[in-house]
Design goal:
Strand order of the largest sheet: 12-11-8-6-7-14-15-24
Number of strands: 31
CATH superfamily of the largest domain: ANL, N-terminal domain
Bound molecules: 5'-O-[(S)-ethoxy(hydroxy)phosphoryl]adenosine
Radius of gyration: 24 Å
CATH class of the largest domain: Alpha Beta
Structural class: alpha/beta
Helix content: 25-40%
Largest sheet: 8 strands, mixed
Number of domains: 2
Strand content: 15-25%
Low-confidence stretches: 1-12
Length: 651
């Protein structure tokens, strides 16, 4: 039995159901065949160049499509464009100024309709505000805002003048904010007094003030009034957004930027404590996100109402709320708050209200909706929906099926999109009019993308499990880690020579479908068998009493690792741990039976909704927990730790 080989990721519990695109969907779909794949397979440089020319407006043509000196890529070299011009001006110039860019819905129920013309106007004014605060091309601006239109405006204003933004999720602490400001050496911080969350105002400005105590580069702070909470303003440094906007000049021409102009930094956690400032540039990135947004979601910009529920503080918000959709001239919904305020049906109420046609969310959210029950979406008419998307973690087949049935009315194609902060845009996903889907599989690499699995030694794997690698440069790829290109090379390009290593495990089934298995550190090794935490979680969640499950491999003296499961039951239900263990054995095999199951009312998650598996492993192994500042609810951990210590293992 192989022990330390990716080939040994056991291909257990294959999902057999298939869903071809319906004839009704295909009738109006943008892509119903393989022509894009064929085109890209011939010549992927030429393919991306044609997409870029088709989707974007360039001020100056590029001379070289892609310059590749591993691991550094440049795309559309010599070309010039302005990202904010592409997202705003050209739509207005084409006569679409009155088209809605954002239907904004505040958590308290206030609404705001922002047209493309208004978005352009505010962006130009705010670009002038930034200039007035001394921001020039090449500077960095930090953004720490709730989910309000000003977040997009601030980002686009930076892009307009060639400053790079660094957005920090509003749920991050003062420490995290100051770390990111310091690493980026930001000149200006854009924040708000506060925002709405779960019926209350959460203050941002006081946290920003605390962060600014330990920074030295910020000379100006702009504060958007949103929460209405009292805040202190530092004379000479702090300014109200509305006051500066009132006196700002209305016009700020979009200056052409080099294709490789730094567009933004976005910090993401690595295996070490220090977050990495992932660098993204302009021409290639915008090509990638515009292309994927259009074709993965089958966007018909004139009629679709698109809603991505991500926060602008994460890469999904950057690529699929701001840049991709606006480059494509889409109409979107932007929602400020939590999904269960005032009721568990808030999301579905909004879908009905705005007639949302394309809905993009995360598996963790879908499982939460499952937990709340199908009666919540059933309260609303969701028949406007036509495409559903998923991102952020492997979607277990049961959640996929629930999404399809209870949200998609059994007819919407589901696009499970695999990508990362580092990839900039979607890499592996179905095209909804062309791809036959299987619940739980992200299917195939998109046209123009090269992805392969390799084993421990870097040899290609054509069937079964392996490490996911990317084999060729792509336009949206990260250009490095801010201030640490050695770490960039080391983190992504050293494990398998010549390949980008994504850090994810995956398996290929006999039909060539890719099944993402989660981070490689989430793959357990039990008695020499590699078993994905995701597969066991899927099995647990397929039991009718289980709402959500997180599985970790804890060190075990006999078996190497033992499978430990944390399970949240559906409201009001009770079940014996033994029943669930047998259920997993039934679904996958006795090898995958969890050694212990702990029941818990909530799972510890990061503020972006990812289950903190490493932390659960620490709990399972009785280790000290260290920093839990990114936990959505830190008390959950204490509770889990208490139970893990008290309850003997069922074995
Ligand atoms: C995981 C989010 C399975 C994966 C866009 C990746 C997924 C990490 C999927 C990146 C998916 C994202 N199926 N796993 N469809 N999408 N992941 O940087 O482990 O926040 O490496 O980017 O999320 O997370 P990040």
């Amino acid at each position: 039995m192989p022990t330390d080989d990716a080939q040994a990721i056991d291909a257990l519990g294959w999902e057999k159901r298939t869903f071809p695109p319906s004839a009704a969907f295909k009738r109006d779909a943008l892509v119903v065949d393989t022509h894009l794949y064929d085109d890209a397979a011939e010549d992927y440089h030429g393919f991306w160049a044609r997409q870029s020319a088709d989707l974007l407006a360039w001020s100056k043509d590029w001379s070289t499509i892609c310059e590749w000196e591993l691991p550094f890529a440049k795309w559309f070299v010599g070309g010039q464009l302005n990202v904010s011009y592409n997202c705003l001006d050209r739509h207005v110039i084409a006569g679409r100024g009155a088209k809605v860019a954002f239907h904004f819905e505040g958590e308290p129920g206030d609404t705001r309709t922002v047209t493309y013309a208004q978005l352009l106007d505010e962006t130009q004014r705010f670009a002038n505000v930034l200039k007035g605060l001394g921001v020039t091309k090449g500077d960095r601006v930090n953004i720490y805002l709730p989910m309000i239109p000003e977040a997009a405006i601030a980002m686009l204003a930076c892009a307009r003048i060639g400053a790079a933004h660094s957005v920090v999720f509003g749920g991050f602490s003062a420490q995290s904010l100051s770390d990111r400001i310091n690493d980026a050496e930001a000149k200006v911080l854009v924040t708000a007094d506060g925002g709405w969350r779960r019926g209350e105002v959460f203050p941002l400005k006081p946290t920003a003030d605390e962060a600014l105590i330990s920074t030295s580069t910020v000379t100006g702070v702009v504060v958007v009034r949103r929460g209405g909470n009292e805040v202190a303003m530092v004379e000479g440094r702090d300014h109200w957004y509305h006051e500066l906007m009132d006196t700002a000049a209305a016009e700020c021409p979009a200056e052409p930027m080099d294709s490789e102009q730094l567009l933004f930094l976005l910090y993401t956690s690595g295996t070490t404590g220090k977050p990495k400032g992932i660098m993204h540039t302009s021409g290639g990135y915008l090509t990638h996100v515009a292309f994927t947004h259009k074709y993965v979601f089958d966007l018909h910009a004139d009629t679709d109402v698109y809603w991505c529920t991500a926060d602008v503080g994460w890469v999904t918000g950057h690529s699929y709320i701001v840049y991709g959709p606006l480059a494509n001239g889409a109409t979107q919904v932007m929602y400020e708050g939590v999904p269960n305020h005032p009721g568990n049906d808030r999301i579905w109420e909004i879908v009905e209200k705005y007639g949302v046609t394309i809905f993009y969310t995360a598996p963790t959210a879908i499982r939460t909706y499952m937990k709340w029950g199908p009666q919540e979406p059933a309260k609303h008419d969701l028949s406007s929906l036509r495409v559903l998307g998923s991102v952020g973690e492997p979607i277990n087949p049961e959640a996929w099926m629930w999404y399809q049935e209870h949200i998609g009315g059994g007819t919407c194609p589901i696009v499970d999109t695999w990508w990362q902060t580092e990839t900039g845009g979607i890499m592996i996903s179905p095209l909804p009019g062309a791809t036959t889907t299987k619940p739980g599989s992200a299917t195939f690499p998109l046209p123009g993308i090269g992805a392969e699995l390799v084993d421990e030694n870097g040899a290609r794997v054509d069937a079964g499990g392996g490490y996911l690698t990317l084999t060729q440069p792509w336009p949206g790829m990260l250009r490095g880690i801010w201030g640490d290109q050695e770490r960039y090379r080391e983190t992504y390009w050293s494990r398998f020579p010549g390949r980008y290593f994504a850090g994810d495990g995956a398996k290929l089934d006999d039909d060539g479908y890719l099944w993402l298995l989660g981070r490689v550190d989430d793959v357990m090794n039990v008695s020499g068998h590699r078993i994905s935490t995701t597969e066991v979680e899927s099995a647990l969640v397929s039991h009718p009493s289980v709402a959500e499950a997180a599985v970790v491999g804890a060190t075990d003296p006999t078996t190497g690792q033992a499978i430990i499961a944390y399970v949240t039951l559906r409201g009001g239900l009770e079940v014996d741990a033994k029943v669930l263990r047998d259920h997993v054995a039934h679904e996958i095999g006795a090898i995958a039976k969890p050694k212990a199951i702990y029941f818990t009312p909530e799972l510890p998650k990061t503020r972006s909704g990812k289950i903190m598996r490493r932390l659960l492993r620490d709990v399972a192994e009785g280790r000290n927990l260290g920093d839990t500042s990114t936990l959505a609810d830190a008390t959950v951990v204490g509770e889990l730790q208490r139970r893990a210590a008290e309850e003997p293992s069922p074995d």
